[in-house]
Amino acid sequence: MNIGLIQPLNEKKYLYAIFASILAVVLLMASIGPSLLAAATDDDDDDGVVSFELATRFGSGIEAHIILVDTGTENVYVGVATGMIPGEFYVSLIYDVLSPVDGPSACAPGIDPNSGAPGALTDPDQMFIGFWVPVDAPVGTPRTLEMHALTSMGPPPVFGPEQTVKTGAQYTPIGDIGTMSIRQAPDFNVVACGELDDDRDLDSDEDSDSDSS
Question: What is the pTM of this model?
């Protein structure tokens, strides 16, 4: 789907979006308390803070920066997007590590190339993250990601109340996540896609090299 109605964003607006997203995480940490922050930064567990850089797809002009905090039992997503059309409705979903980030199948659910079986992440309760608000934001105004449950796939899909965390059946370990999308209603075609940027292993390797030297 090529919307073709939005001009590419300039660098100043995108940097503002990233700054706003980081600020939102700082405020989030203050609101949910030190226990989540401590869990998310525990080097002994496979959890922490990672991010997604969503690039425009199919000429939409939409870009986003999302931060994911994973405690090992809970996910918290904070994001800022720019380039969305006022009055249009957008949602975000996550996909498994086999999901492509580029090409005509960008941010489609992954398929095992050998067996043809679907990837590990197929539960809509896990895949659906939320939608972008405010819907009536003026042109040039960034929107923020608001987490919601998915009550029914529909059509049309039915969304539950706003959430502060994804836990229980909605929780997804960082290691199971490959990409994240923004999709536009009513057809929910992909308009932005990006892969999970996990530099925790890199940081760990650097620390190990420092210790051994």
Answer: 0.74
